[in-house]
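The authors assume throughout that readers already know how a fold can be written as discrete tokens. Each protein is reduced to its one-letter sequence and a matching series of backbone shape codes. I therefore recommend that a typical entry be quoted early in the introduction. For illustration, here is how one protein appears when written out as sequence plus structure tokens:
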Amino acid sequence: MTLATEHERRLHPLSWLFLALAQLRQFALPLIALLLFGRGGGQWWESLGALGALLVAALSVLRYFTYRFRIADGELTIRSGLLQRNVRHIPLARIQNVVQRRSLLHRLAGVAEVRLESAAGQAQAEAEMRVLSLADARALEALVRSSRHAAADAAEHDGSEAGAEPLLTLPLTELVRLGLSSNRGMVVVAAGFGAAWQLGDGFGRRLTRLGEHAFGFARELLPGPWEWLTGAALVLLAAAAGLRLLSVALAILRLYDFRLVDDGARLSVEGGLLTRLRGHAARGKIQRWLVAQNLWQRLMARQSLRVDTAAARQLNDDNALPELVPIAPDVVVTRLLERWLPRLHWRQLDWQPLHPRAWRRFMPWPLLLTVVAVALLSARFGPPGLLPLALLPVWVWRARRIAGWSGWYCDDAHVAWRSGWLDREWQIVEIERIQLLRIEQSPFDRRHGMASLLLDTAGADPGWSALRLRHLPQETVTALAGRLATRIARGR
């Protein structure tokens, strides 16, 4: 039986199990707390937890029997619900991105979780199908592709991708570099720290004992006035090393065997050790390109590349690979940009400066924090609390460096913006993708003859703000906005 049929079909028979596991995962912490802290109730708490698990399983089975889909005439129709029936009609040509997620359990069962995203700019995907057989998931991808490119044969397209040579793969050494240059482990540690702290005083006592051991070792190593300084340094070094090792492990788990493939019409990425993620983006629907390079990546001559597509994506969504190129040498990222944006001439961009007084716009937050610190410390310690004022020259120097490195560029087809200093970013938008132009001015900007230009695109990722060319001379912004408006109108 082919996937496109006049008859309605159900999902894979094991879909109820995966749905139940997904729902139980959301209630895992309350159930664990119920079992750990439900003292004095005998078997009552355990029975209540078991009853909740059975209820979730029963609802998942019910959802399996009430969920049906049909693909015919270039349209996906989904019927769901028991008491409240929902019917959705989704044209396949509207789908811009197909994301596959395969955990270790999915791979053992030969199934995949499929997420269909469109350019509607919604917070939710058009459809989430949990779960389809692997053959059905691949057939659905082929149908979506053939609906967008009717001239191409779906079967040949699928076969050509399977044998396509990847543009980029990430060996283990690159994943180690990615982990060492990221702070992803900090999020996991913070979440684990908060959960462990709720388990009682035992966790706090363990931390206290670890600190005592570190300072005891420091006392033997450098006794005297250096004891506390050495102990604190040892604790910080151990914490930093642990976080980096955890970040490396997370990078390997998420991006093992990473592949980037370009078949001309779309870009495909795939990776993961236990959970295998596979995502696609139509080349013509990419709205923005972002090259990022933090301080550690600069020291290793590495960069990352991310794209914003005209496909809805939830904020903090784990079912899509976050970056087109998680990490690669600078020359590789430059080569890929020149491949996808051949008219940009990335290496020879003539970056234009900001307003001469733009550095002052980077001063308010450091100044505010300094004033608050001086007020608090002076109230507690008196005149020594004025020492943070010594940081003011540092903040001025930092603001001038940021303003001096930031800049903008515009030609007949692209607008680009670079920002940062220690951590750097480059953003590129094709002019034909721009949907909104807006000039912004704060009272400070008006006083000093500055303005910012906002450029928004279709279906922007909710995790990204609109592109802003900040703190430019007012006459420059006015002229640039008029030039872009004329170019956009002529293009349409």
